[in-house]
Automatic annotation (TrEMBL):
This is FAD-dependent oxidoreductase. GO terms for molecular function: oxidoreductase activity. PANTHER family: GLYCINE OXIDASE, SARCOSINE DEHYDROGENASE-RELATED. The lineage of its organism: Bacteria, Bacillati, Actinomycetota, Actinomycetes, Micrococcales. It comes from the Bacteria. Pfam families: DAO (PF01266). Keywords: Oxidoreductase.
């Protein structure tokens, strides 16, 4: 394949914007195409953004996440907060969390062009550009047909609650039996409960601040002994999480486009960006082999 000179990247989330920035840094002209010029869509806002390699199988996938976590540490970007984590009594010192809005904004600021457009078919773009990268999260399957591993990329709906609390008794990520908490900047906390998510899903109820916050506040108190203020300002973001069929990343050519999609998108973003950019320019890394479409 001839080295591409001008590449379109569909999707301006954490993965798409990271790949676009990596390609630009390699001397490729990039046009990011997304329905929202900021790239901070529902999935980014609803992500706990915990960078980790915990409880990931098989081993090559766990190692891939560990390599990505090490890449975050190496880059030491201001939007990666290397707080460490404590999960079910075990400490994970290299972990941290990402301010996804800041990360995406910085990535997009480094690319040549950002085009606001809703893409439903890639055929015209494949004529216009030397290569088309599809990193559209849950929407990737519709734009990159042709692989059983991409028959769907839409997972269950999840949520993230953010609330003000100046007295939160933790300065790192805390995970206790499916309850996950982390700092979210000065005087704020981000939280989610997989138990509450599963209950709402079984009941067919959409998560709102009104039906999540009382139960979440009670769960936080029971798990940590700390009661968040009852009258605090609460916001909730919801989104269907990105989830390929087998739960593993998909990275490579399919249907005439280069697809990149992963459930652990925030953790993997900087490593995926480097490897995908190299791959597109003819330098294949063997770590990609298990994740081909």
């Amino acid at each position: 394949m001839t080295r591409p000179q001008h590449v379109a990247v569909i999707g301006a989330g954490v993965i798409g914007s990271s790949i676009a920035a990596a390609l630009e840094a390699s001397g490729v002209e990039v046009t990011v195409i997304a329905s929202d010029a900021t790239g901070t869509g529902p999935v980014s806002r609803a992500s706990l953004a915990w960078v980790n390699a915990r409880a990931k199988t098989p081993e090559y996938y766990r190692q891939f996440n560990a390599d990505a976590r090490a890449r975050w540490t190496e880059l030491a970007l201001p939007w990666f907060h290397a707080t460490g984590a404590r999960a079910d009594g075990e400490d994970f010192g290299p972990d941290g969390w990402v301010d996804t809005a800041a990360a995406i904004a910085a990535n997009l600021a480094s690319v040549s062009h950002v085009r606001v457009e809703t893409v439903t078919d890639t055929s015209a773009l494949r004529e216009e550009f030397d290569a088309v990268v599809v990193a559209a999260g849950a929407g990737t399957a519709a734009l990159a047909p042709g692989s059983p591993r991409l028959s769907t990329t839409t997972g269950a709906e999840g949520y993230l609650v953010r609330f003000a609390a100046s007295d939160a008794p933790f300065d790192r990520i805390v995970s206790i039996k499916g309850l996950q908490l982390r700092p979210d900047g000065e005087g704020r906390v981000a939280a989610q409960s997989l138990t509450i998510e599963n209950r709402l899903r079984e009941e067919g109820v959409t998560a709102t601040a009104e039906n999540v916050w009382p139960a979440l506040r009670a769960e936080i108190l029971a798990a940590t002994g700390w009661a968040p203020p009852a009258d605090t300002a609460v916001t909730i973001n919801r989104a269907h999480r990105t989830h390929p069929v087998d739960g593993l990343p998909v990275i490579g050519w399919v249907g005439g486009v280069y697809a990149v999609v992963a459930h652990s998108g925030v953790t993997l973003a900087p490593l995926l960006a480097d490897l995908a950019a190299r791959d597109l320019l003819g330098d294949e890394d063997p770590r990609l082999a298990p994740f081909r479409p």
